[in-house]
Structure prediction request, 982 residues.
Amino acid sequence: MAKKFATRKENYSQWYNDIVINADLAEYSAVRGCMVIKPYGYSIWEEMQRVLDKKFKDTGHSNAYFPLFIPKSFFNKEADHVEGFAKECAVVTHYRLKESEDGKDLVADENARLEEELIVRPTSETIIWDTYRNWVQSYRDLPILVNQWANVVRWEMRTRLFLRTAEFLWQEGHTAHATKEEALEETKTMLNVYTDFVENWMAIPVIQGTKSPNERFAGAVETYCIEALMQDARALQAGTSHFLGQNFAKAFDVKYLSKDNKREYVWATSWGVSTRLMGALIMAHSDDNGLVIPPKLAPIQVVIVPIYKNEEQFNRVSEVANRIKKEMQDQDIAVKYDNRDTQKPGFKFSEWEYKGVPVRLAIGPRDLDNQTVEVARRDTLEKEAYQLADITNKVKHLLESVQSNLYQKALDFRNENTHTADTWEEFKDVVNNKGGFVYAHWDGTAETEQAIKEETKATIRALPLDDKKEEGKCIYTGKPSERRVIFAKAY
Amino acid sequence: MAKKFATRKENYSQWYNDIVINADLAEYSAVRGCMVIKPYGYSIWEEMQRVLDKKFKDTGHSNAYFPLFIPKSFFNKEADHVEGFAKECAVVTHYRLKESEDGKDLVADENARLEEELIVRPTSETIIWDTYRNWVQSYRDLPILVNQWANVVRWEMRTRLFLRTAEFLWQEGHTAHATKEEALEETKTMLNVYTDFVENWMAIPVIQGTKSPNERFAGAVETYCIEALMQDARALQAGTSHFLGQNFAKAFDVKYLSKDNKREYVWATSWGVSTRLMGALIMAHSDDNGLVIPPKLAPIQVVIVPIYKNEEQFNRVSEVANRIKKEMQDQDIAVKYDNRDTQKPGFKFSEWEYKGVPVRLAIGPRDLDNQTVEVARRDTLEKEAYQLADITNKVKHLLESVQSNLYQKALDFRNENTHTADTWEEFKDVVNNKGGFVYAHWDGTAETEQAIKEETKATIRALPLDDKKEEGKCIYTGKPSERRVIFAKAY
Prediction:
């Protein structure tokens, strides 16, 4: 950790990349745009999965698994869907390699060309609704509440680790319902699950809203979203929940026999979050000293570093350290005793600081004499000497305090970076010079949205769910508007 | 569950398929050879994952994630490896679809042809060792103990649900070590982890052994395996652990600086089990009444079915059922109270029986009067009236007894179906008329192995680890042999 890394001010984008690489979260692979998620990064993702998976199950969902490949023709069945995904998909055309004629290379075997090309799933609505057709006969078979943890591929041209990669990991929920009301309720339930997760585990405040038609999921009737603000005052979409109406039921002919004996199309939702959340986690909280992980998602919540000059001291310190470790494990605190003899304490301090461990304990012979421990919290970098007695409970409270402080800091930041704009000049000024969320009036047309995007790079992030009606004039066209929407430059 | 399904005697293969489909475990999808794992089937896989993942972590491994795609040229770097996998892989050639000229179809866009084709991973040694090159500088960076949960694709021509599908789910461990001894020890450690899991969770006895050169993993120096016997007396390979020597380190130039300052190639292992284990689970224990799941892997261990004629009775029964349910949940028993009012008790009985739930409780008004519960165990189909008092503890013991009984039954079956053969005639007779494991002498050559396979379809399943030296003559060539190996027809 002796290297000097970029600060946010110097180069925000480099700062982000430095953290991803040097905190051992992920790296690019030999395959264009595809990343390797390293063990430490993956262990954070596992924490996220664990929490989300429980929330999905607690709301009545089960996991299942659908094929990686989707027949090309399936995409053509839902017009908007194909429009949204055909331009960025990996196409499988052959199922065998053979030696080239000169024997030096491998080539796709033309005798093993697929009759119909297969697409590596960019999302699974089509293959899943093709499957649901056979699962649904009557209203008794509904609802279907299924989630899938999977890898998906969207051939992005410009990639960034976690934020935008050709392959990424995600979960995609796909539910089927007898009525529109029930499907809409499911859409909102899952939006609330995501909100709860991002705010109370990731410690990032979000705004709930719906997407403008331009930003809607390809095939959805309505896309609900949660939007978060990063430290460079750009917005990041942290999760989406789609009300799909009967679009996919119609495309794949999925009908059910209702209680009053009528054949009706089924109503659908889909919802997902991805490894992109790792990017949000990093950007929301980290500082110029490296990664900062909220305690509730930290694979290592507490690290204990021994300070010693000889074996006798090491043994004395280790005895206490191991006792604390045991106590903390019994209280479900994820604790690591870093007893490596290959590294000095200073190195360990900066390594764990850079890797974002929320709380660090240092114990040396003098601490033992005083019956104290040096406790450092990662969020504020403050250090304090704690009495050894009852240390586990105190650290438990400290972890809670770090968690809530991170949320409050992010909320304060968002509040400071939330603006309103009433004229086009004001809007451009805010977007170009301040960034952040901008509440402004919009005439409701796709043309205006597009024009604003082209001139400022700001897009409509959300039509907030909790907005108040307010008469006003569109900042761009001056036409009447009934509500403010939220603009921002976004990831 | 009113339908009549095939029995094992009538049609073993149909019996297997019926269970997979009708117990809601999996089904074929619209994509050739690819399956959909349904929620109930997936929940069993999740139990397997949970147990295995903990065992991997307890033995020091971390999870990570590597790309789905592998550059074609990587396969060419390890000669045996390409030979083993090139003939059955999905090849990605394009990264975009476009409308066909008549506008009616989608076609792969020739302007978006990849410079180098990508292979959908059939296994990840190549991409992982390409990554490890950058992770390893000195002996301090070793060992690397990493596992990945992932989907892989091998283009099988004849597929069977769970047993052989084009896409399947698995875990693949890939470790890197400074010494040969350490890598060999890791190989055996993981073989023991698999053995422990299959025997003590899946309740299937296995034989540990190494593979003959013909059956070895493409790229391995030595393949260790565990072999199980199914109810049709065919063998099934339940897991493999490969000692890869320095083959992949040499192919991808992965060297480390040793303690005495020498550049040395790194030693490797890889090991994996897959959704194929679902097939083993089904075939090892199920009977003509359907699936039988060992309690330690059952997503539902106990189902409670209420017997009632009116609402008053339903309420009385439900009160007790819910109390039992709560008690059992507190004891970590996975219990379901099936209070559906759309189905009769008889239907529920056969449904849960067919789905393999280990223990069923039935409670009616008369039971309440007698303070008893009717308890049925799935393995023996025996029913018994239990006193209500202390029911949770009794059921807990019953679950343990079902678990050990299933193992014992499978072990007895294997013992009854394990034979020795000393002559070619005897060998053919056993293989053709009895099946099972056949211990026989073999001259150690690939030619003989191949000839035996062609004449009898039996292959060498394993050179058992615990075998005794025994002088003898090869059943096929009469040449001298020092040990018996195990032959069987296999899945």
